[in-house]
Amino acid sequence: FFKFHNKVNNTKIIHPPTISNVAPPAGVWYNFCKLKPLSPKEAFEEDLLLQSIAWPDTPPLQSLSLRKSSDPAHSTFTILGRMGEGQWQIGDKMEVIIKMYDFQGRPKNCGGDVIVARLHNPALGAGVAGKVVDHLNGSYSAVFSLLWEGSAQVEVILVHPSEAVTVLGRLTREQPDRVFFKSQFRSGRVSETTTCNVCLRPSRQPVCNYTELHTGQQWFCYKPEKLSCDARISHSRGGFTQNITAMENKLFQSGVNLKVSIQASGLANITVLQQKKGKVSLESGPSGYYYQGVWRALGGTTVWQFNTSSAITQCLRGKVIKMYGDSTIRQWFEYFNGEFNLHSPKQTGPFIALDYPNNIFLMYRCHGPPIRFMNVPISEVHYIANELDNVIGGSNTVVVLGIWSHFSTFPIEVYIRRLQSIRSAVVRLLSRAPETLVVIRTANPKALNLYETLTNSDWYSLQRDKVLRAMFKGLNVHLVDAWEMVVAYNLPHSLHPQPPIIKNMINVLLSYICPQKGG
Ligand SMILES: *[C@@H]1O[C@H](CO)[C@@H](O)[C@H](O)[C@H]1NC(C)=O
Ligand SMILES: *[C@@H]1O[C@H](CO)[C@@H](O)[C@H](O)[C@H]1NC(C)=O
Ligand SMILES: *[C@@H]1O[C@H](CO)[C@@H](O)[C@H](O)[C@H]1NC(C)=O
Ligand SMILES: *[C@@H]1O[C@H](CO)[C@@H](O)[C@H](O)[C@H]1NC(C)=O
Ligand SMILES: *[C@@H]1O[C@H](CO)[C@@H](O)[C@H](O)[C@H]1NC(C)=O
Hints:
By secondary structure, the chain is α+β, with helices and mostly antiparallel strands. The protein contains eleven helices and 25 strands. The site of one 2-acetamido-2-deoxy-beta-D-glucopyranose (NAG) has 5 residues, from loops.
């Protein structure tokens, strides 16, 4: 997983508050949006998380101009020579320096560009994600672990210029409601629809408060004129209010400055030799890499290949697999459902698939608001934390979680609050049934156009992904590193990764479930 190191001296020391003498903080405000206050302990964690994802300063809104913004066409990268010279060997780390220039060809002197990098060899089906470091002066390093013998080619992609990050930040601050939702209310023949959100703009209209008491997750709809708040029957994605200036618009142009490759100033590839001696150091390296199209994890897990339906069935025999999250988790359910050849409709769910002869129970349920699905009946609007509290758990139970993409447009604090509630439920589950296997799918980069960017940019996903990883660190949960698995594969980024990537993800999942293959 790549990281942007914020080298700004960010050493504000915060002492953990003691519960007794510190009043709970007053909550967080985003424009008109007030988020519920956290307990001192949670607020302390939130502070640390916010510091850990602090993005370098980007140019101020007032001074944005396309001409002075980062231009991938003028920018270049250079492969640095091998330390201690000689030829590249497996186990080495290779560094690439990326120099950013603006549209006038002038060197950039601030950081904050969003850059991803990979090293790959299409013929070998090999690929690995690089770790990008922001030097905050217009140059960046991408560091790669060399993991296969033969040719390796560097690819560097500018996802967003730093100027675009300024705009993305503004949108969240000023319009945390730009993605909005609808609920239908019905009683007898009367039916009404109103707008709903995490926060509603103040108005004279009365509001229904659907804040969920057990998990504390806030949710509001405007009250229908005739019907009562109790008459709510469904939740839906409402729409999106796009509100950016013509100038800002120029910072998000496909083929110009939105997910565009940066070219090498010299060679973009190297040749890697067999390692002569010594051990491969994988310290702070990637979580895995592809070789012959197959994901190999580096964290100590052996990824087995479950190539046939019978291998999958054998692994899952006697298991209860409960999947909760967004459509990227539903994709996994659909993969299995295809394998078992059980047919169920493909909308919002929940879905269940059963394999009677092999005693396999498979279930998918979407996460709660702000899920952007259409027409979720209110009786099916469930929060993951509450669902987990109803899981008995045990050695035959697998819980799979994936929740990230629908939180992009909201303040990060909304996501932190959601994960805090889910994590508490995971901790309760693992303490009552420690043998339960919990697997979490991380976020991944996706195809971006202007609309996709403003509602779901990789920059938003990246920030949320860092928070997710930090919050579950140290718990007995397993990650499927969707971020690196998508960056490293030789296919375009996609919100719903293409079948070969899904197959690899499922193999990682199954290898957690069946560490002794077929066992
Ligand atoms: C930017 O910072 C890096 C790391 O400190 C340094 O190596 C490099 O020379 C600097 N580049 C410029 C143009 O100042
Ligand atoms: C909504 O309800 C929750 C839970 O009862 C409460 O804590 C919160 O203050 C309410 N919010 C508003 C704006 O009324
Ligand atoms: C659109 O942006 C302008 C300027 O930032 C702001 O005044 C206005 O309230 C925004 N409109 C909406 C619907 O968010
Ligand atoms: C790098 O790529 C070029 C063009 O594809 C190729 O001709 C060359 O042999 C490669 N060099 C190495 C060191 O792999
Ligand atoms: C499974 O499929 C992969 C990728 O297609 C292939 O490399 C591997 O040999 C297969 N393994 C088995 C055990 O069939």
